[in-house]
Structure formats: C-alpha cells, structure tokens
Amino acid sequence: MRSMPRRTFVMEIGGRTLSLAALSAIALDATSPALAEADVGFHATPLLQRTTTDSGQTIEFPSGPNQISAFLVELAPGGEHSRHRHPFPIFAYVLEGTLTLDIEGVGEMQFPAGTAHLEPVNTWHRDINKGVAPVKWVVVFLGQAGKPFTERP
To answer: What's the whole-number mean pLDDT along residues 71-84?
Structure first.
C-alpha cells in the first residue's frame, strides 16, 4: 500500500475547534504499526463507521459531479426543523444538547452530544429539540454539485 501524507483539517465553530483528523480513521487503519511509528502525538478516535443509515438503508453515493458541504446547525429549545428529506447521505455529529430525529416509518431516535449518525436518504423526517438548551450539530452533506441538500413536501 502506498503511503499517503496525512493532513489535519480543523474548523473553528462557535469558539470551539473541531478536528476532522478522526475521519481519516475510516479510510486508514490508525492502529497500523507503520503509521504509528511516523506519527507523534496523533490519536484518531473513530466517530462513526457504518454501511447503513439510521433507518437501515445501504449507503450509496450519487454518481456525477459530487460535492461535500459542511454546516454548523443550531436548533433552539422547543424548536423543530419541519418535515424534510435529503436526496443523498448526510453525516451528522452532535456538539451540544440532544437531537431528536423523528423518522417516518421508524419513529424517534435520540442523539446526545458526542454522538454521530447517518440520516436516512429520501425518507421524510424532522429534527426536534425537546430539551431546555440549544442543540448544536455539524452536518456534512455528501451530495451532487448543484443539487439541493433538502427537499420539502
């Protein structure tokens, strides 16, 4: 296997620094002795490694000119992101609070701070904050260039 240089991507989000280096653990075996010898002070904690979405769908990426977009999303206490769906895979990581995802045909799922999930594709769902503090999460859309991230009824 050819050795690839490792880069660390860091985003400053709301006064917090989020390192995306942990995502490299999905593509590279961070426990490999060859990699461990070359790194000093590097530690990768896998956040998520799955082959299906929250609703059990197999993950399939769109063909064509793809685009990755990332957002910091905030939902006020008692707030709701009304019924919607996404035409491609969505990775999400909850930074603060507890996100409730109400998925049509599946029911409600809770994601507290420090958890990651893969939202369903082409399935109606709602994001709800049932708590007393804001919910903040990072959303990464793995979609096609020029195609909307979210569809509404």
So the answer is: 96
